[in-house]
Amino acid sequence: MEKLTKVIVLTFFITLFSCQSDDVETAINLENTARLSTIIGNQSIETGAVIACAASDANGAEVVHVFYYLEEGATNVQFFETNTTEVDSNDYSKYRKLDLHSTPLFNGFIYQFTRPFAHEQWIIVSYELDGELKLSNPIRTKNTSKPTLWTDQVLVNQEVSKMPKFSWEADATGDTAIYFQIVSTVDNGLLSGTYTLENQFQYYNTSNVVLNISEENPVELTIGNSYKFTMMDVSEDNWVNTAIQSIFIAQ
């Protein structure tokens, strides 16, 4: 019988991503801002090159967080959105630029835009790198139709010392394209960042990892120390169905 270690519930696990404060951006009139199609102009572009997704806030679905991974050397990060989802998501003339500020998470491993959304829209994040304009795939917000489920429910199997194996419930609607996992210190120091197609991940074991965006091999866990596990269940259109955060003690 497998030894399943129950995680310690992190009472304020939502505070890392959930921050409805005075810094949340207010609504912006998209008709007065530049179109993505105009900004692209004659530039060399690469589509699908920015890793990004979005989730509704744990304290209220009207606020949405847009997360993206910033490659080393990237500059001029920009945020674009449509007025509605009832447009062709690949028609760049429908996207308008918003001057939003992003904040670092996990010591700058990923970044986050936060702003209120009265209705669902399409979003694209871009930056410049190596003489090209890199674009994310379109992100469809679903804060009204399918708000992100925030939970701490994950099983941690520590049968192999210092190599905890995490498993979690798959989305009941079958709307999952990929899972994103982060193992970190309790104060959000990044240890590993990985993607899998399966609803399980074992620390230090990349046999089922389809994308590893950690810069270095993860450090060995220390027995008795507390660590944080974060997981995002991401749909084909880059919406986070479920977000998990829990604290565990390494064994």
Automatic annotation (TrEMBL):
Domain of life where this protein originates: Bacteria
Protein name: Lipoprotein
